[in-house]
Design goal:
Number of helices of chain A: 3
Structural class of chain C: mainly alpha
Number of strands of chain A: 0
Number of strands of chain C: 0
Radius of gyration of chain A: 17 Å
Number of domains of chain C: 2
Helix content of chain C: over 70%
Largest interface: A-C, 53 and 54 residues
Shape of chain C: elongated
Order of helices and strands of chain C: HHHHH
Mean pLDDT of chain A: 87
CATH class of chain A: Mainly Alpha
Number of domains of chain A: 1
Structural class of chain A: mainly alpha
Chains: A mainly alpha, B alpha+beta, C mainly alpha
Distance between the termini of chain A: 62 Å
Shape of chain A: elongated
Helix content of chain A: over 70%
Number of helices of chain C: 5
Oligomer: heterotrimer
Radius of gyration of chain C: 20 Å
CATH architecture of chain A: Orthogonal Bundle
Low-confidence stretches of chain C: none
Strand content of chain A: under 5%
């Protein structure tokens, strides 16, 4: 490759972003409807994973490597969030 | 300190196996989700494990969760058996044999 | 040229698997089967996205960061699903009526009610 970065067609990025947005809408529906509390935690976990995907696609779209740092931070934080929610529910059960 | 965590060539074999299993798991999942009729038959099965050390149990947990149609739920207090939620549980014994012969054997081979 | 095609295919495949996870979370009948969809598919989708990023930027920094994210996600996703399903079972969350066996309930004595499939069989008698 002579150029700095590989070239990616715009419609590919747009299709990927549309698919990710519809995935996020679907999981928001599950978050709102979810019959039980664990369902909502699953939906939140999925939303966080989808936002990591958003960040990486956005980094490819703009050609800025630095956006990947955000993905690292989100990946570090979502795990703590999920474990905190689950621990809270467990505590509620034992009380 | 003679014991090492894992031998290096074995680790590469393990990573390749992991990737293969994960691709397979995702295509099974795609088939299940996109097929119009639900053909899954879930169940929670107790499986006695031979793995004793922490490394092996961690690897087993990871691998079971990422392989097609099984998800680790809990480990018993005496660390001798685990509870696995399976998607395609035809009957109890064949599911247990599948996990034991396929995944646990691999983990026992690779990890010390 | 070949690089562009690889990047495009990996981005589209990653988006497809992320969408698949969301459809699975909508379609599957109970928490435990939803967990299958919400654990495996997004992790695989992120792996594909990061492979695309590595091919796209093709430098050391991206590779190192991607490796870090992948290792972290694949170490934590099973732990998160384990703790959520454990808590769901502890709270006696409703299980699908076609579930065949539930040996965890027998051992912990959590589930006071019978499994729906067992209940149906006893009703028939």
């Amino acid at each position: 490759m002579m150029t700095d970065h590989a070239f990616i067609p715009e419609w590919v990025v747009l299709t990927a972003l549309i698919m990710l947005s519809s995935a996020m809408l679907l999981s928001l529906y599950r978050l709102a409807k979810g019959p039980s509390l664990p369902d909502r935690i699953v939906a939140l976990d999925l939303i966080a994973s989808l936002s990591i995907g958003f960040t990486i696609v956005f980094a490819i779209y703009t050609g800025q490597v630095r956006y990947l740092d955000i993905a690292v931070i989100v990946a570090l934080i979502i795990f703590i969030g999920t474990v905190a929610y689950a621990t809270y529910l467990k505590k509620k059960y034992y009380d | 300190m003679k014991k090492t965590l894992v031998k290096i060539p074995n680790l590469f074999i393990f990573i390749l196996f992991y990737l293969k299993e994960m691709v397979k798991a995702n295509f099974y999942l795609a088939r299940d989700i996109l097929s119009p009729k639900m053909r899954i038959s879930p169940g929670i099965v107790k499986i006695n494990i031979r793995a004793k050390s922490d490394n092996r149990i961690l690897a087993l947990f990871n691998l079971i969760t990422m392989t097609p149609g099984s998800l680790c739920m809990d480990i018993s207090d005496d660390r001798k058996s685990i509870y696995v939620h399976g998607m395609y549980v035809k009957d109890r014994d064949s599911f247990e044999a599948e996990i034991k012969e396929g995944i646990e054997k691999k983990v026992l081979e690779v990890f010390e | 040229m070949i690089n562009n095609i690889i990047v495009s295919v990996f981005v589209l495949a990653g988006a497809f698997f992320s969408l698949l996870a969301a459809i699975g979370v909508i379609r599957f009948p109970d928490v435990y089967t939803r967990m299958h969809a919400a654990t495996k598919a997004p992790a695989f989708g992120i792996l594909l996205f990061l492979t695309a990023a590595v091919f796209f930027f093709a430098d050391f920094y991206t590779t190192a960061i991607s490796l870090m994210i992948v290792v972290f996600i694949f170490l934590t996703a099973p732990v998160a699903s384990h703790i959520i399903s454990r808590v769901a079972h502890l709270l006696n969350t409703e299980i699908w009526y076609k579930t065949k066996i539930d040996e965890l309930a027998n051992d912990t004595g959590i589930r006071k009610k019978k499994l729906p499939s067992e209940l149906l069989e006893s009703d028939k008698k």
